UniProtKB/TrEMBL annotation:
Transmembrane regions: 40-57, 101-120, 132-150, 162-183, 192-212, 224-246, 298-320, 332-351, 363-382, 388-410, 422-442, 454-478
Pfam families: MFS_1
Name used for this protein in its record: Major facilitator superfamily (MFS) profile domain-containing protein
UniProt keyword annotation of Transmembrane present: yes
Locations listed in the record: Membrane
Membrane topology: Multi-pass membrane protein
Family, per entry: Belongs to the major facilitator superfamily.
Organism: Penicillium frequentans
GO cellular component, as recorded: membrane
Amino acid sequence: MVSLIEDVAKKSEHEETLSALELDVDVSDQCQVNRTKRKIDLRICIVLGVMYTASLIDRVNLPVSTSSLWNLSATFGNVGSEEQNAYVAGMRTDLDLQGNAYSLLILLFFPFYILFQPPMTVIARKLRPRRFLSGIVTAWGLVIVGHGLVQSWRSMLALRCLLGIFEAGFFSSCVHLLSSWYIRAEVAKRNAAFYLLGSFIAGFGGILAYGLSKMDGVGGHAGWRWIFLLEGIITIAFALIAYFLIVDFPEEAQKSWKFLQEDEIKAVIDRLNRDRQDVTTSPFKLGSYLRNALDWKIWFFAANFGLSSVVTYSVAYFLPIVLREGLGFSEAASQCLSTPCYVFASILGFSESIISDRIGLRTPFLLFNCVIEVIGVVVLGYAKPSGIRYFGAFLIIAGANSNIPLSLTYQANNIRGVWKRAFCSATIVGAGGIGGIIGSLTFRDQDAPTYRPGLYTCITAACVTFISVCTTSTYFFVQNKKQKEGKVVIEGLEGFRYTY
């Protein structure tokens, strides 16, 4: 770690490299490069961020409200306050949800979401993002509409499986698409914009669902059905609009509705090839694709993302309970007091990503966020004054949510090859699904009022992430040193160096 810290002071060489990369393109004016990047930002980061919002809202509009947590925790455990209004609006009675039926509806989504990650990224590459992403979003919008029309919970089980399959292709394909358009020194703030924009807007999904539930009786439909019907229709509308806005991979950009001029496309591809030389897509071979699993680094990248997801899910589920039961706030106040935490997380995460891109380092920010996660858990779980405990919530949410886009950037910066990039994107997002399962079940009613096992789980997740990042970054530092001495070729490309 001492060597890593010393290396931070030697950024002049890195800055010269970035400057050369910016200027080493076939355009006469750097302003044109910047204009091209702004076009890409609008058509990728913003559009995907809005679609990710629809994904999050659709995924969390099923479960229970904070007011019903204690009644259901014996069969399922604590579930998120955002995931509330459909259940409360009458779904439990109408669909005769007895015993473990409700927990099955919640959890059945995740196995399909995890298992279908690898094939979905391959299909996205074959069909091209514009067709694929708009297609699967339309499909899951129809599935959400179906949620509002079913007459039994067994029928909804099948829909939950389909939802997991269709959503499996979204996030990993978005991550893959983002990393394909930007050089490594630019991708952190784009990942942050995509993820944090979607997460921030989706934080108001509970308010939307609450308003829709008040349509109870309109058109002869119960309020919980309107939640699914209208949110599904909104999702389909987003998908249809996105079909005309989403862009394909750089080598296919000329097919994306005159998105960029030929000279702009050439400039983008030149920059990418000079950065990592992996724009050209090689023929897909299943054996070669699966052999990417032998690269140990990919599993460390997946661990970073999955463990950060454990904390983000856990806090999302646990915080409303702490605010209401532990700090004595009303249910409405608990919902409102959660929002500033996520606003702060968005500000911190985006600021870190901008600085991270500027100095070309990821590790210090990942480690810093792990540290403030641990401090936040300790403060929230063990402090006595309400104000101080609430401050702890800010730290946990900020650290965990900021590490999500940074984890995506960390892996994207240190792999090469179209299919390896696709495999890695699928792997880390699948790990995030596993983190979602763990996070949704870690705070249990029987552990009240201290919830020690849940707190220990969050601390452990942050600490293991810290160790994982230190391990890979130390390896990257050593390999970069050997590369500089001419002893190794990294990732099969002369001159390529890891970014830590």
